[in-house]
Amino acid sequence: MDNIRRGNKQLIKELNRAIVINTILNYGPVSRTRISEIADLGLSTVSNIVADLIKKELIYETGEEESSGGRRAILLEFNCNDRFVLGIKIGLDGIIVGLVNMKSKVLDQHFIPSPIKSNEKIVLEVLIKAIRDLINKNHIKAERIVGCGIGVSGLVNQKEGILVFSKILGWKKIRFKEFLEKEFNFPIFVDKDVNVLTLAEKRFGVGKKINNFICITIGKGVGAGIVIKGDIYHGSYGGAGDFGHIIIDKDGPLCYCGKRG
User: Fold this and answer.
1) Mind spelling out the 3-state secondary structure of the chain?
2) Quick check: 95 and 111 in contact, CB under 8 A?
3) Are 217 and 224 in contact (CB under 8 A)?
4) What does the alpha-carbon distance between residue 211 and residue 26 come to, in Å, rounded to a whole number?
5) What is the CATH T-level fold of the domain 84-198, as seen in this structure?
6) pTM recorded for the entire structure
7) What are the boundaries of each domain within the chain?
């Protein structure tokens, strides 16, 4: 029972920390009092988390809030160029590896052709080299990378970080998370490319203030990302939003899936 209690306390601490970080990212520069109000957390809890984040140089104090009387509150801002994120888009047209700061600003990106119809070993070797090239080009230490997100065309097991199958790419069972986390000292997150696009629309685009919507992409294939109650809906097996081949003209052009029309 004590282990469960300790585990629950640690989880709550991590959740509260994530809430404070997201609040500063979205509303900064912002005061401790305002963070407490927005996040619905106690001021002492916020102050303790903020002190730790300042010590780790993730945030910094920047100026004072305008006051209508009384002591002016000190504003907090995220140190957006102290930590970085990698974003990777994998599709038929190629692979784009992007370096992004904590304010979601793209600082640099690298394009390479997709190794179509290649095995897992070749795919991962190509990706590892592309990541290393981008990090080295920008003279960034690997420990400054807080995570890497991968959006890939195909059926994805998001929890395991595995591309199960991609007809377009000709790939099968690519274990991105397992092997890339062994190679690099930061977490790897993998999802369908349309879900990643939908998440961006939810955070930055037209879906920012909408809790239920569908984002549809039309290209070599047709896909959809589904948001329900503010979260991406993956379905039981990660295939939510996959239309499959819908025949419009039985004598139409040949599709990459082998069907016509």
Assistant:
1) CHHHHHHHHHHHHHHHHHHHHHHHHHHCCEEHHHHHHHHCCCHHHHHHHHHHHHHCCCEEEEEECCCCCCCCCEEEEECCCCCEEEEEEEECCEEEEEEEECCCCEEEEEEECCCCCCCHHHHHHHHHHHHHHHHHHCCCCHHHEEEEEEEECCEEECCCCEEEEECCCCEEEECHHHHHHHHCCCCEEEEEHHHHHHHHHHHHCCCCCCCCEEEEEECCCEEEEEEECCEECCCCCCCCCECCCCCCCCCCCECCCCCEC
2) yes
3) yes
4) 17
5) Nucleotidyltransferase; domain 5 (3.30.420)
6) 0.80
7) 2-78, 84-198
Q: Tokens at residue 80, please?
A: 């957006």
Q: What's the pLDDT tens digit per position in 209-229? A: 899 999 998 877 788 999 999
What does CATH list as the number for 2-78? Answer: 1.10.10.10
Query: One-letter amino acid identity for 100?
Result: V
CA distance 172 to 174: 6
- pLDDT per residue over 166-179, tens digit each? 988 999 999 999 99
